[in-house]
């Protein structure tokens, strides 16, 4: 199982992360590992920016941080500057995006992929209720769209199976019936090249605590393309989305740009921890990240697919993200015992073992150690 001869152009990047070598961490698709520079940045933000500069820091970079950090994420998702804002949670951004997408529509339905991560389905249900539309879960292979479809919400990578959807093809399908598409990029941002502008995606959301390593609960992002910004009807009219927040006007006038998607005061400590975590992306090429992710997951798959009782449910080939999901009737117990052996993945009910591979810090040896541990348990 040795991988000594394997070339890994990202091998040196692991040193930028604060990881224990005796732990095989394969849960970066749930909570990314901390880059080493984050602790010092947070210390700087607390001690100097907050401590010494106090409220002056709002006009020394804090106020614009949601757009500035948004532009850094924009580079990773194929969005030109001024179209991504970092704010709130993915759930809240989904609410804003879906409410804006159905605003003023005379169409009847919202479609959501049937295997969606629960929060997307719950939020889509609320938006349907509030807007008087119906919600229809559908198989992404057979969306059955029509001219009654207002908006389609799709997960780029399925959190359970790791399947990657064809964003180009599906976006085109949705546009062909005159509907809008909202993409949830939680499991794809930072591991594969994404081209939101080039594909004319209507709206997109994603979290930053998985493969972007922003830290627990780091703020999410929302993409609103420039041409859609004037028509982006913000349902949560908080003051930070106002055109002139400090005018303290009694009337709400939205910011003309992407800032209209902001709501309330940003969580600066978390936002600037994320900003620091994003530094690592200045040193890597997403194509290399993708290539390594495919190689890591293929290697792990090869090592585990013939183990007794295991069924691999992650698609083979290129239509997959950076996790390998295995079905086994004793998945919960197996994962508990793997974690006892310092191999950390996760379990998704009822019977799925998930192993996420973060190409910036996971190694081929991690894949081997995890496969060996699982083999011994089985
Ligand atoms: C596809 C997807 N959407 C949304 C979320 C989470 O949303 P939030 O950031 O609001 O917790 C997750 C993971 O928690 C997810 O996997
Ligand atoms: N967001 C999470 C959290 O706050 C606690 C524990 C896990 C999570 C996750 O991100 C779960 C993840 N989205 C999943 O794919 O299952």
Automatic annotation (TrEMBL):
Its EC number is 3.7.1.3. Belongs to the kynureninase family. The gene is kynU. The modification N6-(pyridoxal phosphate)lysine is found at residue 210. One of its GO terms (biological process) is quinolinate biosynthetic process. It comes from the Bacteria. Homodimer. Catalyzes the cleavage of L-kynurenine (L-Kyn) and L-3-hydroxykynurenine (L-3OHKyn) into anthranilic acid (AA) and 3-hydroxyanthranilic acid (3-OHAA), respectively. It comes from Saccharothrix tamanrassetensis. This is Kynureninase. It catalyses: 3-hydroxy-L-kynurenine + H2O = 3-hydroxyanthranilate + L-alanine + H(+); L-kynurenine + H2O = anthranilate + L-alanine + H(+). GO terms for cellular component: cytoplasm. It holds the Pfam family KYNU_C. InterPro entries: Kynureninase (IPR010111), PyrdxlP-dep_Trfase (IPR015424), PyrdxlP-dep_Trfase_major (IPR015421), PyrdxlP-dep_Trfase_small (IPR015422). GO terms for molecular function: kynureninase activity; pyridoxal phosphate binding. Keywords: Hydrolase, Pyridine nucleotide biosynthesis, Pyridoxal phosphate.
